[in-house]
Amino acid sequence: MCSSGRRLEETFSMEFEITIEGPARAVYKIHEKLKSFIRSSERTDYHDALGGKMARIVILEGDEELLDRRLVTISSQIADFCGDAAPKEDIRVRVRNLAYSEPYTGSGEFAEPFEPIPFLTVQPWKPGLAEPDDPQTIVLDCPHAFGTGKHPTTLLCLRFLAQMAGMETRGGGLQGLRVLDFGCGTGILALAAAKMGCARALGVEIDPDAAKAAKRNVTLNHLDGIVEIREGSWEAARGRFDLVLANVVAGVLFKVGAEIPAHLNPGGRAVVSGFGEKQDGEIRRLFEDSGLIVYEKASEGDWCALLLKDGRLHKNG
Ligand SMILES: C[S@@+](CC[C@H](N)C(=O)[O-])C[C@H]1O[C@@H](n2cnc3c(N)ncnc32)[C@H](O)[C@@H]1O
After folding, report:
1. How far apart are CA 92 and CA 186, in angstroms?
2. 306 in a domain, yes or no?
3. Distance 274 CA to ligand 1 centre (A)
4. Residues near ligand 1 with C-beta < 6 Å?
5. What is the 213 CA–ligand 1 centroid distance (Å)?
6. What share of the chain is helix, strand, coil (3-state, %, to 5)?
7. What is the best residue among 102, 122, 158, 184 to mutate for testing ligand 1's pocket, by most ligand atoms within 8 Å of CB?
8. Does residue 165 share a domain with residue 286?
9. Which pLDDT does position 3 carry in this prediction?
């Protein structure tokens, strides 16, 4: 490929990672097979994973239609090959858009405890992990769900939460509040709200795998009495809340964001994230048109978050 072609590809390509986890022999064979589906500019590797081996291929594609076709071809190759190499249920396949993704349990990037914000530690779960001594620690298992606390959008939401809770001074908390974590992923924001003292938190999540991970995280943190996770979307989030957290990609915010005011108690607040500077104007208009006041904006890298307040007039307080 000529050098200008490569530059174009590097500038405009979408980067997708396909991982295959399972028994060593099967994963090795699948990895060998998949090598023939990648181009010289793309990456592939094969290494140890929790309970077996992992093969990873990263494909770069500038054309969306071509990308879809390649993903379908690769997936069907994996499916065909799985049948011969090992029982299908032993092999786990995952596709991630690397422009918007995160490390996961078992990867080197998510192994050690870290403080995404002061006074809150995230302890990556591992087999045999001892109960943490510090009550401000969240144990997280993130096998196939977004939300480790490392992505800027999660960080921005955690910072707003801490600000509202007065965490910087270990004061106040979110006492008495009913919180909704819309698109909860691993459940990290609902868990953090619970650690900051909210009365109840509900996490709703459309992806069944992520909802399962969030439920497990609630149990790992002994917060079943405070945090509830439901698989679904707005239909699963009945009632009104004092605080709605919605860290979802811009496309989802445009689609479902206008529903937020209907789920807020009078005077309630919302934190939305998952969009970039370029979409800031449109996202603001969306919420202002639906009756919310943009109270504060925060950014981290290219990502933004807004703190919104219910600005509607309510007759009975
Ligand atoms: C960027 S992740 C955020 C995870 C976590 N709340 C955090 O802040 O790290 C967005 C999550 O929203 C979920 N999601 C997307 N659309 C949704 C919808 N309409 N209803 C519920 N969940 C949705 C996705 O499956 C994904 O797990």
Report:
1. 18
2. yes
3. 9
4. 146-147, 154, 157, 181, 183-185, 188-189, 204-207, 210, 233, 247-248, 252, 256, 274
5. 13
6. 40, 30, 30
7. 184
8. yes
9. 34
Low-confidence ranges of the chain (pLDDT < 70): 1-14, 50-51, 64, 82-89, 99-101, 105-107, 167-172, 313-317
Convert the pLDDT of each residue in 140-152 to its tens digit. Answer: 998 878 899 999 9
Q: Which atom of ligand 1 is nearest to the CA of 149?
A: 9
316 assigned to some structural domain: no
Count of domains for the chain? 2
Q: What pLDDT, on the 0 to 100 scale, is given for residue 110?
A: 83
* Cα–Cα dist 92/94, whole Å: 7
Instruction: Tell me the CA distances in angstroms from 93 to 35, 67, 82, 203, 225, one per residue in order.
Output: 16, 17, 10, 25, 33
The residue segments making up the domain with residue 133 are 108-310
- pLDDT at res. 82: 67
CATH of the domain at 25: 3.30.70.1150
Percent of the chain with pLDDT over 70: 85
Please state, for a pLDDT cut of 90, what percent of the chain lies above it: 53
Q: Which of 80, 100, 120 is the last residue of a domain?
A: 100
Whether residues 94 and 171 fall in one domain: no
